[in-house]
Amino acid sequence: MRDIIIIGAGVSGTACARELSRYKLDILVVESREDVCCGTSKANSAIVHAGFDAKTDSLMAKLNVIGNAMMDKLCKELDIKFQRNGSLVVCYSENDIEKLEELKNRGIANGVNGLRIVYKDELNKMEQNISEKAVAALYAPSGGIICPFDLNIGMAENAAANGVEFIFDCEVKKINKGDSFYELETSMGILKSKLVINAAGVYADVFHNMVSSKKIHITPRRGVYCLLDKSVGNHVKSTCFSLPDEVYGKGVLVTPTVDGNLLVGPTATDIADKEDTATTAKEIKELIKKANINVKNIPIKQVITSFAGLRAHEDAGDFIVEEVEDAPGFIDCAGIESPGLTSAPAIGVRVANIVKGILKPKKNENFIGIRKGVLNPDNLSIEERNKLIKEYPAYGNIVCRCETVSEGEIIDAIRRPLGAKTLDGIKRRTRAGAGRCQAGFCTPRSIEILSRELNLPQSKISKCGGKSTLIVGAIKDSL
């Protein structure tokens, strides 16, 4: 019998796991995929929202602002790249400045600091590629950019270091309510726990509805993105949004990333299939059209990949982070769509407070809040780097030329807590395969390293778990 089972190893689930690892609790995270950060958390806008967009007094607005304020300290503790580059919401008509004022006032009511309206001359100095039609923008200096992989993996690794157990490739099929516990029927057998935290993304409604008579409904909202090469990563400095209008809706954002790329997206298409992350020509065409509204001369020919993510949109349009009324001990983290990434640290604290009220746990006096990420030799001086390579020659073997990722970094990514088991797992931890050639060069070598480190034949090494293997056999065996 566990104290807590968390369903889902995305950013909400791992935020809860890390926060709860501050207490003496027996915690298990079950994840249906092969790794952390495999659902919504891996495919989003990679931005930290300031908090002016959500409706005042909504839980979304509250947790957004709290999560934003927590981000600097959290990223320092977990060795994560984070930059407050600011955000701009741009309008194109003098008549729409009033709407910017309304957005500003909402942000102030939500507790966002530093908001101000900037006008054409100042706006053009801030962003030389802003649309020539732009007349003003709402500027939020607290907006930021982050790597969602780093945040998710960092929280998971730190939780694991503090005693949280993770089980992967474990699908929850049914949840049964006991008198004082929950029984989870999974692909790996029966699991029992006093409490369950439902952080299952687009599937959170499925699990909620298994235990509660008060049903909720989540619609997967697909968003398509285009990622551009690092050579054009400085096309904008801030995260640039369009002011919502009747013709184009909210529009798409154009933003730099913490890794130096340019990101454009997302679209918003409500779908029925909770697994449909396909990109379509129609959506990409729509994306490019909308992106060019607020930023000019977007070098769209420098796109190196497109991808899609699913947002978990609950019908009520707000986060649900609470103990279910008719299912004591079952705690929802449901409807966590944008700004879910920003809000995750605050979600973790809110859930921990709910758990503390139920279980009254003692503090974990051995809690360690610091985690070191994969060593990046680029952050070392020439002298330090030469010393590292002399001591560990693998750091001198470049595997991924686009991102200059060494064999040493890949080995570190595999051997560390909750280490990489797939090609995508390596990419999320080191960026090997994330560059211009999109793994065209480094894949064979990465497969070799995974095979050696995991003691598996190369035919068993996959891109993203399951049946996504790349090698079907040796050529000589077919002769």
Topology:
Elements: E1 2-7, H1 11-20, E2 27-30, E3 47-48, H2 59-78, E4 82-83, E5 87-91, H3 97-110, E6 116-119, H4 120-126, E7 136-140, E8 144-146, H5 148-161, E9 165-167, E10 172-177, E11 182-186, E12 189-198, H6 204-211, E13 218-228, E14 239-242, E15 253-256, E16 262-265, E17 269-270, H7 281-294, E18 303-314, E19 320-323, E20 330-334, H8 340-359, H9 382-391, E21 398-400, E22 405-406, H10 407-415, H11 423-430, H12 443-454
Parallel strand pairs: 1-2, 1-12, 2-9, 5-14, 12-20
Antiparallel strand pairs: 3-8, 4-8, 5-7, 6-7, 10-11, 11-12, 13-16, 13-17, 13-18, 15-16, 19-20, 21-22
Helix pairs in contact: 1-5, 1-8, 2-8, 10-11, 10-12
Protein name: FAD dependent oxidoreductase
InterPro entries: BFD-like_2Fe2S-bd_dom, BFD-like_2Fe2S-bd_dom_sf, FAD-dep_OxRdtase, FAD/NAD-bd_sf, G3P_Oxidase/Oxidoreductase
Domain BFD-like [2Fe-2S]-binding: 398-451
Task: Give a quick rundown of the structure.
Residues 398-451 form the BFD-like [2Fe-2S]-binding domain. Residues 3-353 form the FAD dependent oxidoreductase domain. The chain has 479 residues and is an alpha+beta fold.
List keywords for this structure.
FAD/NAD(P)-binding domain, five-stranded antiparallel β-sheet, 22% strand, 3 domains, FAD/NAD-bd_sf, D-Amino Acid Oxidase, Chain A, domain 2, 479 residues, globular, alpha+beta, BFD-like_2Fe2S-bd_dom, 30% helix
